[in-house]
Amino acid sequence: MNANDGTVATAPVIVRAEGLTKQVSTPDHDLVIVREASFGVAAGESVAIVGASGSGKSTLLGLLAGLDVPTAGRVWIDGEDLFAQDEDGRARLRGRLVGFVFQSFQLLPALTALENVMLPLELAGAADARSRAAEVLGQVGLAERLGHYPRQLSGGEQQRVAVARAFATHPKLLLADEPTGNLDSATGAQVIELLFRMNRERGTTLVLVTHDEALAGRCDRRIAIHAGVVSS
To answer: DSSP string spanning 162-191?
Structure first.
């Protein structure tokens, strides 16, 4: 509440898309995967991107992260124009502001759980990477598994390492692509609880792609995509 005028203060927009379009050409025709998407996501908000298989959900998430380049349109993250920068600039911005959780975990098999979580911290130049990585692994219940390699961990444990890695740098924005897609229902529920707990405790904005209605229902709101057309 604003003490001066009695109005309710609104959170700043952490992600904004404007006219975001992704089109690919095939020998037969041009395929529009995302069509002129425009929306904002407020800081601290949790948003589910929902839609049928092949509707463009993961492509939209990749565009928001700058992992894919749009045919047209713009994205701002924390006020910075993502596509006004070159690939290296986008990578630096992601390193400062964005964490990722993927369906396939994306852990490096030659690194231990601790080393996987240390990696983004070391890339960011953190002097205390080891202690910070150990701390966040403890927060996700893996304090006894620091020296284990991905092959020695269950799927749920690997995803918890991935969540720890995503949150280790204290990102303002966490992007998750079907984070429970490779997990059984009980383990998936544990990972969901973990994501939302970390979201609450750290105030991190959460944007996730999911086909899971229960997971989407946990979010503050949904962004629906159908045949590339976004409604929010």
So the answer is: HHHHHHTT--SEEEEESTTTTS-HHHHHHH
Question: What is the C-alpha to C-alpha distance for residues 160 and 210, in angstroms, rounded to an integer?
Answer: 18
For position 70, what pLDDT does the model report? 96
The answer to whether residue 186 scores a pLDDT higher than 60 is yes
Q: Which residue, chain included where needed, has tokens 């911290």? A: 121
pLDDT at 1: 43
User: Residue 231: phi, psi to the nearest 5?
Assistant: -130, 135
pLDDT of residue 3: 45
Give mean pLDDT, residues 75-80: 95
CA 199 remoteness from chain centre: 11
DSSP state at residue 219: S
Phi then psi for residue 165, to 5 deg, are -60, -40
For residues 156 and 191, the answer to whether their CB atoms sit within 8 Å is yes
